[in-house]
């Protein structure tokens, strides 16, 4: 069995950001705002500020897609720390 030691502090943060970068580049806009409510364990990703969504669609996987007209303006992720 191979044991991988997890880095700590800023090294771990940098490693996590590098792993996330290819995925972040696939988002629909060049700008986004990310907010996390630790108490509610909900992650909010907004592609517009202010978002001003006019409609939303709950997905089976605990994601809520938020729209302004037909444009995706945000994603809400429930139970974010468990994903």
- The best one-word shape is globular
Number of DSSP strand runs: 5
Spatial order of the strands forming the largest sheet: 1-2-5-4-3
Please state roughly what percent of the residues sit in beta strands, choosing from under 5%, 5-15%, 15-25%, 25-35%, 35-45% or over 45%. 25-35%
Q: Describe the biggest sheet?
A: 5 strands, antiparallel
Tell me the Rg in angstroms: 15 Å
How does the helix and strand content classify structurally? alpha+beta
Supply the number of helical segments: 1
Distance between the termini: 25 Å
Helicity, in percent?
A: 10-25%
Give the overall average pLDDT: 88
**Could you state the order of secondary-structure elements as H and E?**
HEEEEE
- Report low-confidence residues grouped into runs of 5 or more: none
Structure notes:
The chain is globular, with a radius of gyration of 15 Å. A 5-stranded antiparallel β-sheet has the order 1-2-5-4-3, with no helix packed on it. The longest helix has 15 residues, at 10-24. The protein has one helix spanning 10-24; strands at residues 33-37, 42-46, 55-58, 63-68, 71-78. Helix content is 18%, strand content 34%. It contains 1 helix and 5 strands. The protein has a domain at 29-82. By secondary structure, the chain is an alpha+beta fold.
């Amino acid at each position: 069995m191979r044991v991988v030691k997890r880095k700590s502090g800023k090294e771990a943060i940098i490693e996590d950001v590098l792993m996330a970068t290819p995925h972040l580049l696939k988002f629909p806009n060049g700008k986004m705002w990310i907010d996390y409510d630790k108490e509610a364990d909900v992650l909010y990703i907004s592609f517009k500020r202010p978002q001003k969504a006019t409609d939303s669609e709950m997905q089976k996987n605990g994601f809520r897609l938020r729209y302004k007209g037909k444009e995706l303006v945000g994603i809400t992720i429930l139970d974010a720390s468990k994903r």
